Amino acid sequence: MKDKESKLHKNNKHKNGYDFTLLKEKYPKIEGFVIEKFDKETIDFSDPIAVKEFNKALLVAHYNIKDWNFSDENLCPPIPGRVDYIHHLADLIGGVKDVKVLDVGTGASCIYPLLGTVEYDWNFVATDIDLDSLDYAQDIIDDNDLSDKIELRQQFNEAHILKDIIEEGDSFSATMCNPPFYKSAEEARGANRRKSRNLGNNTVRNFAGNSNELWYVGGEKAFLHTYLYESSLQPTASKWFTSLVSKKENVKSLEDSAKKLKVAEFKVIPMSQGNKVTRIVCWRF
């Protein structure tokens, strides 16, 4: 199974780039971070503060999310890539009414529920293991008057993903997840230094992202296999189980395990943004 290069989804508002005139009009604070590069307006993507303000500007200008505040220690998700997952999930689900999605590991930013609610009027249950992250997420939900659309649940056992989260009577159109990539804090820091160099920044920037956001014992592969196994224990709780998969080599082992667990359908949706190529893996029973 080969990954194919793909551009942003046809419904993605950012597929043709960014309108900085609009961003400055809707979110004036971004003006202090705009720079000229190759005769075009942009921001310094190696500056975490600029990146966070840029994503806030996108949310205000295009999604009417006015308040999006969380600790600088938490990951700041790139809006174009995150909303791409939402659009691909909409294609997967089809024209179903009363969609309810389970977002595993929503983080402090609560980004997938925000985007899914605004773009498609979906309802969400969003989970996380970190109470501080859930506190930030709840504040964002309340500040944007979305408490009737998004419910938060805490996972208390780091060994589990779906177990003790899915309740009796739950019925989801899909689950979604952006799993931790790394096996340890050290591995994640090394990747951060490489990314910093690739952006042309010789200084190692402050390391953003707490443990549950960035690393998991056994890394992405272990997380995905636990997720797949636990989905097999509650196969009717969701019509589709999905996850981003960063490492291409993890797809084959997941597909092999899915066959053993009697998965009825397994598919891979390619995604890319700029130079980053990833994919959504989807399965159902």
Query: Rg to the nearest angstrom?
Result: 18 Å
Shape: globular
CATH topology: Rossmann fold
What is the number of independent domains?
1
Q: Describe the largest sheet.
A: 4 strands, parallel
What percentage of residues falls in helices of 4 or more residues?
25-40%
| CATH second-level architecture | 3-Layer(aba) Sandwich
Largest sheet, spatial ordering of strands: 5-4-3-6
Report the CATH superfamily: Vaccinia Virus protein VP39
Multimeric status of the protein = single chain
In short:
By secondary structure, the chain is α/β, with parallel strands linked by helices. The protein is built from 9 helices and 9 strands. The protein is 37% helix and 18% strand.
Question: What does this protein look like?
Answer:
This protein is of the alpha/beta class and 285 residues long. The protein has one domain: 3-Layer(aba) Sandwich (Rossmann fold). It is 37% helix and 18% strand. Helix 1 packs across helix 2.
